[in-house]
Write a structure and sequence with these properties.
Elements: H1 3-20, E1 22-30, E2 33-36, E3 45-46, E4 52-54, E5 58-61, E6 66-71, E7 77-80, E8 84-90, E9 94-108, E10 116-120, E11 124-128, E12 131-137, E13 142-149, E14 151-156, E15 162-166, E16 169-174, E17 179-183
Parallel strand pairs: 9-10
Antiparallel strand pairs: 1-4, 1-6, 2-3, 2-5, 5-8, 6-7, 7-9, 8-9, 9-12, 10-11, 11-14, 12-13, 13-16, 14-15, 16-17
Length: 193
């Protein structure tokens, strides 16, 4: 077997191992909460509290519904509001929530974390070191990231601009490349269901 063949087989083994790994658990599900498991074409599996979440899985929260997820390694918590859809993507060094649309309240712990944490939308990337913040991504292509505690950075992928956001601030990013940092009011932070 050639060196290239061995490298390809090793890569496929590692990818398969990462995909099969349980990275989080669903701790709460109210209303219409569904999984689309890696390799599935639709959101066909009804999610139940205690359900294992693996790398590559997607979750969809319907109208009037809510879910909460806890990561097994660092105990970070994601509270997912209605009309939200995203996928879980873990690598050896990073953890990414790839949001298609919706609202996620994030409590990312610094303690016990070995991976960088990112929220990614079609327009923006928020990189987190350990903080509490909300991410809101609309179908119209506008994202909001609202800081509750700690500090995080937001990148607009269209313009390449970056801003830092701390508690009491927000970043607004859109498809035209605009990225604005502004003070956040108490009403800006979504209600915690």
């Amino acid at each position: 077997m050639s060196k290239k063949s061995i490298t390809i087989l090793l890569f496929l083994f590692l990818v398969g191992t990462l995909q099969a790994e349980v990275i989080a658990r669903l701790v709460k599900a109210e209303g219409r909460v569904y999984f689309k498991r890696l390799g599935m074409s639709t959101f066909a599996e009804r999610a139940k509290p205690g359900s294992a979440i693996k790398n590559g899985d997607e979750i969809k929260i319907g109208e009037g519904s809510f879910a909460a997820v806890i990561y097994l390694d660092d105990r970070s918590i994601l509270k997912i509001r209605e009309n939200t859809k995203f996928s879980f993507m873990d690598t050896r060094n990073s953890r990414t929530i790839d949001i298609k649309e919706g609202t996620v309240l994030n409590k990312i712990n610094k303690e016990g974390r070995t991976k960088s944490f990112r929220i990614q939308t079609p327009v923006s990337v928020a990189s987190v070191k350990g903080t509490q913040f909300a991410s809101i991504s609309s179908q119209s292509g506008t994202d909001q990231f609202i800081g509750k505690e700690g500090l995080f950075d937001v990148l607009n992928m269209v313009s390449g601009e970056t801003v830092s956001v701390k508690a009491g601030q927000k970043a607004i990013s859109n498809t035209s490349g605009s990225l604005i940092q502004a003070p956040a009011s108490d009403n800006d932070y979504p209600d915690d269901p």
